[in-house]
Amino acid sequence: MTIDATALILARAQFAFTVSFHFIFPAFSIGLASYLAVLEGLWLKTGKPLYLDLFKYWLKIFSVAFAMGVVSGIVMSYQFGTNWAVFSDKAGPVIGPLMAYEVLTAFFLEAGFLGVMLFGMNKVGKKLHFAATLMVALGTAVSAFWIISVNSWMQTPVGYEIGANGQFLPGPSWWAIVFNPSFPYRLVHTVIAAYLTTALVVGGVGAWHLLKDKGNAHARKMFSMAMWMAALVAPVQIFVGDLHGLNTLEYQPAKVMAMEGHFESHPDGAPLYLFGIPDQANQRLDYAIGIPKASSLILKHDPNAPLAGLDTIKRADQPPVAIVFWTFRIMVGIGFAMLGLGLWSLFARARGRLYDWRGLHRAAIVMAPMGFVAVIAGWATTEVGRQPFTIYGLLRTADSVSPLSAPAVAVSLAAFAIVYSAVFGVGVWYILRLMASSPHTGEMGVKRTERGPTRTAGITPGPAQGPRERPIDPPTGDA
C-alpha cells in the first residue's frame, strides 16, 4: 500500500489536535469529581453549609466540563476507523476489548449516577446522594485506568501473539496486557497530574475572589484546600515522575535520549542539559548549557555511569528530538513551579498571611491554567517520543494510517478546527463565566428547567392537575 506522506502528517496532526482538546477535560473532571466528593463528605461530616455551597458551585462547572469531555472523546474515537484503519485492524483484538471495558465499567458507572449527582440532592437522601457522587468520582478513575492501560500497552507491548494475518492477538493472560510494564507508573503519574491540574484551577479561582474580597469565606476555604494539595502532592508527583522516567529508560531508551538531548553516547557520565537547540539533521545539540554528569546521577544514581545516545539508534527509528526535548522541559518546569507555589503557600500559612499576600494570590492566578499546559506537554513527550511507531518497536505509524488522500484529511482537519474552536470556545467561555461569579451562601447548584428533562419521544401530555393537587416539580425547585 502506497501512503501519501502529506496525508500521514495531516492525519497525525488531526489526531493530535482532537486529543489535545479532549485531554484537558478529563484531566479536569477526574480531579474535580474527587474534589466534589471531598466537599460533600466534609459537609456530611461537619454539617457546615460552606462545604455544601462550594459543592454546588463547582458542580455547575463540573457538569459543563464533563459534557465537553464526553463529546470530544466520542469524536476522537471515530478517527481510529477513518484515519487509522490499518492500526485498528492489526491492534483491534488487543485494544478493542480494553476500550470496551472502559465503556462497560467506567462510562456506564458515570452515566448511571451522574443524573442523581447533578439533580438528585433534593430527591434522594443525603447518604445516597453522596454515594452517587462517589460513584461518579470512581467512574472517572476507572475510565483513566482502562484508557491508560491501552496507551501503555502501545508503549510497552507484552502478552500478545502475532496471528497468521499479522494481527496482534491476546496471549494466554489478559493480566499481562492490562498491567504491562509501564502502566502502573503512567497511571499514577497521570492521575496525580489530574489532581494537581484541578487544584491549580481551584486555587486560581479562590485567589481571584480573594483579590476582590479577602474576607470571602468561600474563597478562603477553596484557596486553602488547593494550596494544601499543591504543597503536599507536587513533591509526590516529582518523585513519581522520576520513577516513570527510569521505567521509560528501561523500555524506551530512545525516548529518554531525545528528552535529554543526548545525540552522542557518554561513557563516563552524561550531562543534564538545561537548554539547547536540537539539530537532528546534524545529530547535535547547539548552544547546550548543562550540568556535568547530572543526567547519569539522576537516571543511574551514579555520576560516572555510562549513558548511550541517539548515535546508537538508527536515524529511521529516532523520534523527533526537538519536540520531545522542549515539551519535556515545559512539563518539568511547570512541575517545579507547582512545587514552588506550594512551598510559598506553606510559608504564608506559617506566617498567618495565606489570605493577605496578594503576590501569592497573583501567582496562583497565573498558575491556574498551567496544569493543562503541563498535561498537554507531558502527553506530547510521551506520544511523540514513541515515534516512529504506534505500537513501540512493532508497528510503524506510516504503516498504520488509512489509504487516504491529503485533500480529504485536510478538509476534515479544517472542519474539526473550526467546529472545535467554536463549540469548545463557547464552552470554555461559559466555564470561565461561572468561575468569575463569586461563590456565596445558598448556592443553587445545577438548575433544571420548569418542564424537567427533555423527552426524546417529544412532550407527552399528562393528566390535568386539580386545584387540590400538589405540583410534582415546583417551578422554584433546584437540585
TrEMBL record:
This is Cytochrome ubiquinol oxidase subunit I. It is found in: Cell inner membrane; Cell membrane. It holds the Pfam family Cyt_bd_oxida_I. The chain crosses the membrane at residues 23-45, 57-78, 98-121, 128-148, 187-211, 223-240, 323-347, 359-380, 409-432. One of its GO terms (cellular component) is plasma membrane. Belongs to the cytochrome ubiquinol oxidase subunit 1 family. Residues 442-479 are annotated as: Disordered. One of its GO terms (molecular function) is oxidoreductase activity, acting on diphenols and related substances as donors, oxygen as acceptor. GO terms for biological process: aerobic electron transport chain. It is a multi-pass membrane protein. Keywords: Cell membrane, Electron transport, Heme, Iron, Membrane, Metal-binding, Transmembrane, Transmembrane helix, Transport.
